[in-house]
Design brief:
about 425 residues, 14 helices, mainly alpha, two-stranded antiparallel sheet, three-stranded antiparallel β-sheet
Amino acid sequence: MKLNKELQVKLGIFQKDKRAYYSFLILAFLFIATLPAELICNVRPIVILVEGKPFFPIFISYNEKDFGGSRPSEPDYKSARFLRILKGLPEPSLAVSLLDEKNSFGLQLDDFEDEESKEEPSFSIGLDDFEESGEPVTPPAETTSAIPLTPRDAWLLWPPIRYDYKYIPTESNTGNVVLAAPYRTPARNGEGFIESSWEDGHYLGTDDRGRDVLARLIYGFRISLIFGASLAITGTLIGCLIGGAQGFFGGWVDLAGQRITEIWGSIPRLYILIILSSFLVPSVLILFLILNLTAWMGIAAYIRAEFLKVRNFEFVKSAKGLGVSNFTIMRRHILPNSLTPVITFFPFEVTAGIFALVSLDFLNLGVPSPAPSIGELLAQGKSNLQALWILLPTFTALTSMIVLLTFIGEGIRNAFDPRKTL
């Protein structure tokens, strides 16, 4: 694709701004690296080979029977039971405890009576009452026919982090699941030490529910960038449409649009969110639609001013004289000459969208749990100030993201400054 000379000059100015250019490269790398988060942080292996047969649990859902187990549900790939199934080992026999020497299962009425009345004769029902012979009932043997008894060759390819954003482990090598620190800490009872959470594969520790902090941070970083960019794109499109119509037609269209915008902008967005969330099921889509109700107003004001200025140029009057439709004039002649504020303010719109999501999640008004969120991690860090492994990495990730976006926005603003363009 061949770029015009003016755009090439602006891109050259942006590349000469090393701070903005390298910030763009770093942020682009981080965003691309977190896009395949399911391949980086997951409780499912990427590939499983059983006797040469491949399985792809991340992309395809399997049940335990597909691997030779007996349950129709999806297996816990990190459990010892699943590893025994893959290797073709039988399950350990179940310990069956008898309630009575005569009965394998009994229901007696004296279980519901007071201690004083237990001396009286009681009435009981046992399984031996329904048998013709007085032989005791033996517990049924465990069925292991679904699990092969011959050893099998199995190979698993795991992601670098064997946890996702919502997995809560039930076992731990260190004996600590909730708020596990990524370094050696003294035990709560003062006797001995608790080993680092690295023993269990938690490289940044766990939160107050036992979920992996690093996995939630990676997923939350991706969601924040996608949400902020999507909100900026939709807000820009709606703002260009409304602001362009006001600036091009003017008159009563502009007057009515300005009054409606002022009234709508005076309503606090937080109150709108609280009211709508009271009778709507919270979700990312609902939150995205609610924030779009006000995300367009800032860019609409700039587009309106640009259209008011450009509509009086000679090339616009010539297009009207040739009978070109209003929509074509707006799209092909006025809008391309009014995109400077749109491009300049786009990174700052992304920053505003990220801040809105983080703030609402911090106040527990955003994405519902267990969805990963930087705001929710900040709230956990505030509630558990002793857990520095939650607060410091989250704060560092959020601050770095905002600083990089700010540097990129400043570089774009300087590149599109007409005083610096040839």
